[in-house]
Amino acid sequence: MSESYHQTAIASLRDGNLFIKDAFIEGKWTAKDATFDVYEPSTSTVLGRVANCNREDIQKAVESAAKAQPTYFRNTTGKSRGALLRKWHDLIMASAEDIGTILSLENGKTFSEAKGEVVYAASFIAWFAEEATRSYGVTIPSSTPDTTLLTVREPVGVCGIITPWNFPAAMITRKVAPALAAGCSVVIKPPSETPYTCLALTKLAVEAGFTPELIQVCPTKDREAATELATNPLVKKISFTGSTGVGKMLARLASGTLKKVSLELGGNAPFIVFDDADLDLAVEGAMFCKFRCSGQTCVCANRIHVQRNAAEEFTSKLIEKVSALKMGPGLGLDDLSTQGPLVNKAAVKKVQEHVDDAVSKGAKVELGGSARQDSNGYFFQPTILSGVTKEMAVARDETFGPLAPIFKFDTEDDAVTLANDTEFGLAGYFFSRDVSRAMRVAHKLQVGMVGVNTGKISAAEAPFGGVKESGYGKEGSLYGLEEYQITKSITLGNLNAGL
Ligand code: SIN
């Protein structure tokens, strides 16, 4: 495959203007002499060159967003902001094929997964279009006579939004939609691996009628420049999804001006299969939450713990299903591929290191085990390892790739102890037919999200976020809006004075 792969795909877009390489600063598409290369993981060729913003660009974007925000909030209601969001949602849905194509090209995920992500991304906008009208305060019985105490929720102000490459659309909308619903403005630093999807979404937001200065997009590969978002005093909130290391650094920097911060960081999700589970259901759950996005999600099952007397049967059922996966370019194989490439060479190297480390310590390769040799793309074979133990790197470290390592355990207590033996706490899954066990284990897992008899836990209405070193704050759900608001109390005193 060559450059013609993406040239053909871009030429086939219904609206070629959605493929944008410029930054969006001060309400204008802004070309830059400085650019960075964006690669296409399916072929490892350059997909295009995008504006590389510097610190001054980000400062300008922040100042412009700060100017626009108070007018936006003053001149709109929850209902009118909801209507703008609804319009944005509809435009995205009408362009789902185009955005799915762009997303698949830059991220590598298969076209059907990419289009599915666009629908998932749009669902956050629809959700917050409705939440915008439900931004309730409370009245509080006052302890002082003649006094009424009430609260109102106000937008926090300018929000710095920093997102990852694994969900180029959904991680933008999960943050930007509640921010706009609350009455905030945003300055987005999209991932340098996948900036095009964000730029396309921004174009549609402006078409939907949002004041352009409310949404500023500063693509950059300059990490130092991007820290401006965490230090600039005009930025009042940082929302970041990405690695724990970068999250801690941003939190430290943001503390200089005491910004509100929410962090959705790394995971090391346990996936537990008890011997009373429906094993077919468990395999279905593992297929979804291990191999979605080729294993590159923060909520992917990283460690599969199976009760000893169910391990053989579960493993052979899993091998059968995983063998049927079709690896291929995101837009190739007549849309038959079910597993795209990984994002880059470093990602392939990491999966190989986890496999090699486990094998050197006694694990057995049941399926796959190496990178694909017959392609220039960043492909790694869907892999199953058995005989994995807690001494191996994969027990501690998030693989972020299509590797399913199977550990065995004996008792429920062992399973919970193994599951919690990590500094991370984003998601956890388990399968059991026993209702008492379902409640017991769900409470004992030290994670922010639990899937019981399912591998699917993500939805606009579900609170998304972790505990421990997986971060803090909730996205989506009825809690997502308040992450972009402050609660102000208003005390009305001496109500009977002068009567
Ligand atoms: C993530 O990997 O950070 C997001 C996954 C999801 O929304 O399901």
Any chance you could write out the topology, listing elements then pairs?
Blueprint (H helix, E strand, L loop, with lengths): L3 H8 L11 E3 L2 E3 L4 E6 L4 E7 L3 H21 L2 H17 L1 H12 L3 H21 L7 E2 L7 E8 L2 E5 L7 H13 L2 E5 L5 H14 L6 E3 L5 H4 L1 H4 L3 E7 L2 H11 L5 E5 L4 E5 L5 H13 L9 E7 H16 L21 H16 L3 E4 L15 E4 L6 H4 L6 E7 L2 H9 L3 E2 L1 E5 L3 H10 L4 E4 L14 E2 L2 E2 L12 E8 L7
Parallel strand pairs: 7-8, 7-10, 8-9, 10-11, 12-13, 12-18, 13-16, 15-16, 18-19
Antiparallel strand pairs: 1-2, 3-4, 5-6, 6-22, 11-21, 14-15, 17-20
Helix pairs in contact: 3-5, 3-6, 3-7, 4-5, 4-7, 5-6, 11-12
Please characterize this protein's 3D structure.
It is an enzyme of class 1 (oxidoreductase). Belongs to the aldehyde dehydrogenase family. Pathway: Amino-acid degradation; 4-aminobutanoate degradation. Pfam families: Aldedh. GO terms for molecular function: succinate-semialdehyde dehydrogenase (NAD+) activity. The protein is an alpha/beta fold and 499 residues long. 39% of the residues lie in helices and 21% in strands. It contains 16 helices and 22 strands. The strands form six sheets. It has a seven-stranded mixed beta sheet, with helices on both faces. A six-stranded mixed beta sheet has the order 9-8-7-10-11-21, sandwiched between helices. The chain is globular and about 80 Å long. The protein starts with a helix and ends in a 7-residue tail after the last strand. The protein binds succinic acid (SIN). Succinic acid binds next to loops. The site of succinic acid has 9 residues, from loops.
